[in-house]
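Batch manifest line 466
LIGAND: zinc ion
JOB: complex structure
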Amino acid sequence: MSVKFVSFGANREVTGSTHMLEVDGVKMLVDCGMFQGKRVIAEQKNRQFLFDPATIETVVLTHGHCDHSCRLPYLSACGFRGNIYATPATRDIAGLIMADTAHIQEKDAEWMRKKKIYGEKEPFQPLFGIKDVLKVLEQFITISYRRDFFVADSIKCNFYDAGHILGSAMPVIDIGQGRKIAFTGDLGRKGTPIIRDPEQIPSADYLVCEATYGNRLHDPIEDACRQLCEVIRETVERGGKIIIPAFAVERTQDIIYYLHQLVDARKIPRIDIYVDSPMAFNATSIFRVHQECFDDQVREEFLIQDKNPFGFETLHYITNVAESKRLNEKDEPCIIISSSGMCEAGRILHHLKNNIEDPRNTILVVGFMAEDTLGRRIAEREPEVKIFGQLYKLKARVKILNTFSAHADYNDVKQFVGNMDLKRLRKVFLVHGEDEELEKMKGHLLGIGVKEVEIVDTGKEYPLYD
Ligand SMILES: [Zn+2]
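JOB STATUS: finished
ARTIFACT:
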């Protein structure tokens, strides 16, 4: 039997996850995500597959985040005809995110054509359009957690809950003769709201493991609700508004869920809460129908009593622009949750523009803010920031909650890998991390007795079972 592992993305970086397993000539991918970051470099990497898409037999998708799923429409347009296996929630989340990405690219393309960035002879084309998304969705086959399924002749797969976002899974691939190769995808944390904790996967011979936080420990998740409560009370006492930039998928639902608990327990004053993002509204609808992914607490507190975890009296979803604009006229305290999460686009920009110069208000940072984004400039409390080309004084308070993270820290990963049969585990391949994080994670894993840890290089073939 000839078995090879090759990775084509998220190596010494955290976007573009695309890994290939080749068993006796049968090629399968785990994820096919987009590269993000600096536009020109990402664009180049996204357009070029380092393999022939037509030769791929099948794809297994770990979760719906763009950096894991969003090159699938392009893969299909380039000749991939096989099945894409995912959990039902992942299919829906990926569908939403791929469609959103298609729209963003179409808008970008229009802007670039206007600015003639690629010159008239070579107008910029989006990587894929909405038609490609609809087409690739027809290639999906959904399968629940913990059900064996065949991805190719005699290659079996089973999804374990990764606890990262709704529907996220860790595929454990059984290639026959008792040989198993496991992938963490993005590994979540214990104790996050709504979704279940990461499951322990069975013993395997090889593990492809993420290392996003190889050098970091998170604040305990239990503090999240308490800190959120404090910020709201303080701001309301000052007569201010709380503006929360949040990713539309998962983070927004986490916040809504905590707010629901705080409102029910009467721990925060009765004020209006607005979710102003059509994308967040759509994502929340997907959450509502995938109750099979919820943890016991949600089941007990909400579902058994037939209560909607994402709906309560003072919570309002805003989907049209006129209503969104009316929020500007409100003078009394309220909470506005809006996207994009890093404040690069979307309705959050209007809310920031209207509220950033009022010292009574609080801008609550609940997610990672990448370099060179407005979100980062706010998080670093720059005295003046540019919004829609105009400078605004940052007079609102800025509060950062570090308790929210969808990724395991190094202690979580150590524990997760440590619970596997280390005598059987031949090697851990590390992906999805920056250089320093990867080196640190390597040290942590060797420290707990993992025999071999390899930091993966793009395009390098790693023979397995040699
Ligand atoms: Zn992810």
